[in-house]
Each structure stands twice: as C-alpha cells, then as structure tokens.
Amino acid sequence: MKISLIGTGVFGLAIASCLAKNNHEITMWSEDDTKVQEYNKTGNLKSIIETYDLPNNIKITGSIQEALKDPDIIFITCSSKYVSSVAKSMLPFYKKGTPICIASKGIEEKSGQLLSNIIKNILPTKNIAVISGPTFAIDVINNEPVALAIAGTNNKTVKVIINALSGPALKLRKSSDIIGIQICGSVKNIIAIASGILSGLGYSESTQAFLINESLHDIKHLIRLLKGKGRTVLSFAGVGDLLMTSMSKKSRNYSFGYIIGSTKDPKEVNKYLEKNTVEGYYALKTVINLLNEKNIDIPLIYLINDIVDGKKDAHFLADFLINKK
C-alpha cells in the first residue's frame, strides 16, 4: 500500500517504522526544512531518533502535495495543536474519502474540539479512525510488544488501518468509542504531569498509584458527560496508557511534572517547556477551557492547572487526594 504520514515527530517515525516492516511505501511530510535537508543529505533522521536507520521504503518530503499524491491511507501524527492548520494545508491535495488515521492526541487547543471533528469539518471524508495506547516511540521502533486501541467512524476504515499497521509486535484492539479514546489520550497526559509532581515532591509510587486510581474515576465521568462510553477507561487508551505515561521517566509529561515538584523554580519549568513538546501542558489548558465551556467540575484537573500556573503550592496535590470525597 501507499501510505502518507503528516508529521515527522518521534511518534510519527515510530508509526512509520511499523508500516515499513509491513512493506508499505511510506512518504512522510515535514514542514521543518532542517529535517528535510537532513534526510536529503544523509538518508536518515538521526536528529529525531539517533539509533534508527530509515529503511528504503520511508521517504521524507517538504511538499505536502507530494506527500498526498494518491495514498491509500493518511496518518496524522503532528502535535494536536497543529492538526487544524495542517488539515487546511492538506485540503487542496486531499482525495475525497481517503481513510485518515489520527495518531495525534485528543483535543484541539483553540477550539476544544476532538481531533476527529476537526478533520471531519475541514476535509471531505467520513472515513476517520483514531489510535491511542501505551506506546513509547522508542519501544515501538525497537520492536517491543506493544498495543493500541483503535476506533473509527465505520468498520471498513478501522479494518483497513488494522490490516496496514498491525504486526507481530503491534496489536490493535477495536473500540466502538471514538470519543472516549480521544479523551483518554488527552487527559492521561495531564495526570502524568501530576504524577511527576508527586514524585518530584518525594512521594512514593503508592501515592502515585493513589492519584492514578482517583483520576480514572474523573476520566470516566468526563467521557460519559461528553457522550462517550465510560468503560473506555479500561482500554489500552485508558488505564494502559495512563499507567505507562504516569509512572515512567521516559514520559515528557511526567518529567515536566517532576521539575515542578522538585525545583519549584519557574525558570527551570519554562526552560523545560522551551526545549520539549509537553502535550499535557497544552492539553491542560484545552481541557480547562472545555470544562468551563461545558460547566463541568473536575476539581483534580483545576488543581493541577493551578499548580502548573504557580497559583498553588505543589503540596496541595497530596492533601487533595486524601481529602477528596
């Protein structure tokens, strides 16, 4: 199959590596000229993952027109805050109805809309799927056994994505909840920040597990209020991804929270944000806006936001967990 990937971040490269193992022809689009130049000179993207050599069936281009030349499937792998602008750039070259799989996480920052709705409103397609689950990019590339949840607007699209992407080391499990998977994918990054804060304060894994368990109830509640299915918190996209992201130093969200908890120095916090893409930081602002708009009260998320903004001391987090009803 001929497959396009829109975005050349670390997770996009991981998805491309899985597709390449299945002998597909892959074209990745990047708006970053330095990445395109690096590929043209070296045939690799060592600046993204130093240990990975691009196989011959992965190509990089700076032309979105070239990337979208008659693909069988399109994967969206850019950061969630860019999905809307990227979709608008795709529109002149997009072939109506081509299946789109969104690997970006969850909710669009400015509008508060699910990414599946952003794509549906900009591009002429009803063939949309989303994937999310407990997968660090480096583990995918290293062929570790990993799993993702997948949901879509129709069974045909989901089946096409599963057939293209799954392999001996990658399992995709179908879900009927395209809403819940996207909410899980966004909110788990917020909880990972909180878990890092607790660790940075010196609290144990037991306290982090306390946080994770409490947050599952809040995520389930939010999913239901937004017309998804509460049981989705038990999927790969829910508890699976939440556990991984909230307990590992590989997670930039966790590491960001750790800095907040351990240093309490705004300069160090801002320095980390400048050097790293912390999806949970942007997701936090997005979810707060969504809660305000929908008049939904989830005190844990509001508290995390206040701590990240420096309005409340990080120690309030542990106190909140003990006193939460």
Give me the count of strands: 8
Major sheet description: 8 strands, mixed
What's the rounded overall pLDDT mean? 94
CATH topology value of the largest domain: Rossmann fold
Task: Give the full name of the CATH homologous superfamily of the largest domain.
Answer: NAD(P)-binding Rossmann-like Domain
If classified by CATH, what would the architecture of the largest domain be? 3-Layer(aba) Sandwich
Task: Give the helices and strands as they follow along the chain.
Answer: EHEHEHEHEHEHEHEHHHHHHHH
What general form does the structure show?
A: globular
What is the number of independent domains?
2
Indicate the percent of residues in helices.
Answer: 40-55%
The CATH class of the largest domain is identified as: Alpha Beta
Spatial separation of the terminal alpha carbons: 52 Å
Question: Describe it for me?
Answer:
This protein has an 8-stranded mixed sheet with strand order 3-2-1-4-5-6-7-8, with helices on both faces. It contains 15 helices and 8 strands. It is of the alpha/beta class and 325 residues long. The protein has 2 domains: 173 residues, NAD(P)-binding Rossmann-like Domain (Rossmann fold), CATH 3.40.50; 146 residues, N-(1-d-carboxylethyl)-l-norvaline Dehydrogenase, domain 2 (Orthogonal Bundle). Helix 5 links the parallel strand 5 and strand 6.
